[in-house]
Amino acid sequence: MKRTVRQVFASGRCAGLYNCASCGLVSQRRDGQVPHDDEAAHCPRCGSALHLRVPDSLERTWACLLAAVLLYAPANLLPIMSTANVFGHEEHTILGGIRELWDARSWGLALIVFVASIAVPILKIASLSFLAFTAQRCSCVNGLPRTRLYRLVEAVGHWSMLDVFVVVLLVGMVQFGAFGSVEPEAGLLAFGAVVVLTMLASASFDPRLLWPDEIDAPHA
Amino acid sequence: MTPTLAPTAPRPAPAADEAAALQPRPDLVICEECDAVHQRVALEPGQTAHCQRCEALLGRGHRVSLNGLLAFAVASLLFFLIGNATPLVSISVRGVANAISLPEALWHTWQAGQPLSAMLAAATALVFPLMVIVLRLYLLVPMSRGQLPPRFMQAMRLVRFATRWNMVEVFMLGALIAVVRSAGLASVVPGPALFAYGALTLLLTSSSAAGLHRLWQLGDELQGTRR
């Protein structure tokens, strides 16, 4: 059940209103002045540092995205695990694992792993690059669809960790010496790092930059 | 419980910082995603309020009482302990049976030369969920009896951080996929821990869905009565 609320200002930053990122309390300077973006302030309730905009948000987002892109190749090319039994030794990449599920007729699971491990990381990197790029140019159009895209990226981000858990559990489960064993490989760490880095990228991105106010674009 | 709309009493500040000192505005709520400022309203249980501009969730009326949340936290701790002390799956190949628990699986990964991957999985499936549960208990036990726990602020900030990196639901799906993938080469029986983690997923999701706003508000009220 939705309840309508009344909007009073378009931008808290232009009205000199802080929104505490930690506890959600709104506060303002006692003299009513609008503070500068880099003015140091602390939440009167929880004491956390207050910012009208997340400092260096775009720089940190780009840095995490770049690191994620660099690690994306080893994450997908290196094996994430290897299986061994009396018949030999075999290495498995992420795509190989999806293929095995597909060949075993677990189409639903193959699709889930494909979405979580291949589609989501690529779409996250692409979406966040697009959002950071448009935010950098102070784009005033399509704020709503871009915010929805950001919300989606935030919501699905951690599901990419799926393959890390699958491998850790398979390593634990399949320890039968000559009858079969599973070992983790270096690709797993690269893949886990990609997931963490894309999560850090979306956490550093300040979605309020998608809604430029008069301070960002005075003549818009 | 209706939120108080009256501004809380300002804290005494030194005269020099008087002008720059910040004054709380509990009558307002700002959208975290687009910075639009809204009037704060009291929400009935089950009601939600959304940003007029970007449609982000601004707040939610609570269906579960404080004691209910406490019960959720106690149950979560119980399921967490079962989920780590009992086997996730029993797997047997040619008569050799192997029952494996989550800590054992993490230990194997560590020993097999991937300590960082093991730590990543341990943090998101074990440490952060445990932190969420313990911190919620630490906050809810005294607060449901009308007392403010020591270091309330730090605990609240920590629980927010731990909730973000808690991935119990992803781990749950990963466990199901691991069972399916190994079912081809051996007979696999799900263990009690798998079901315990299933219950833990539901409990943690439903207790964190309500958000922390109510605890911040209650903390304000309790701090007011203590001073």
Category from helices, strands and their pairing of chain A: mainly alpha
Radius of gyration of chain B: 22 Å
Q: Identify the quaternary structure here.
A: heterodimer
Residues in β-strands, percent of chain B: 5-15%
Largest sheet of chain A: 3 strands, antiparallel
Q: What order do the helices and strands of chain A follow?
A: EEEEHEEHHHHEH
Count of domain modules of chain A: 2
Which strands sit side by side, in order, in the main sheet of chain A? 6-5-7
Compute the number of strand runs of chain B: 8
- Between the first and last Cα atoms of chain B, what is the distance in angstroms? 21 Å
Order of helices and strands of chain B: EEEEEHEEHHHHEHH
| Tally of separate helices of chain A | 6
Strand tally of chain A is: 7
Mean pLDDT of chain A: 89
CATH topology (fold) name of the largest domain in chain A: Butyryl-CoA Dehydrogenase, subunit A, domain 3
Number of domains of chain B: 2
Shape of chain A: elongated
Q: Identify the CATH architecture of the largest domain in chain A.
A: Up-down Bundle
Determine the most extensive contact between two protein chains.
A-B, 86 and 87 residues
Give the CA-based shape of chain B: elongated
* CATH class bucket of the largest domain in chain A: Mainly Alpha
How would you characterize this protein structure?
The complex is a heterodimer of chains A (220) and B (227). Chain A is mainly alpha-helical and 220 residues long. Chain A has two domains: 1-52, no CATH class; 57-210, Butyryl-CoA Dehydrogenase, subunit A, domain 3, CATH 1.20.140. Chain A has helices at 57-77, 94-103, 107-136, 143-156, 162-173, 186-204; strands at residues 2-3, 7-9, 17-19, 26-29, 81-85, 88-92, 181-184. With 227 residues, chain B is of the alpha+beta class. Chain B contains seven helices and eight strands, in the order βββββαββααααβαα. In chain B, the strands form three sheets. Chain B has a three-stranded antiparallel sheet. A two-stranded antiparallel sheet of chain B has the order 2-3. Mean pLDDT of chain B is 87; it is low at 1-9. The chains are: A mainly alpha (220), B alpha+beta (227).
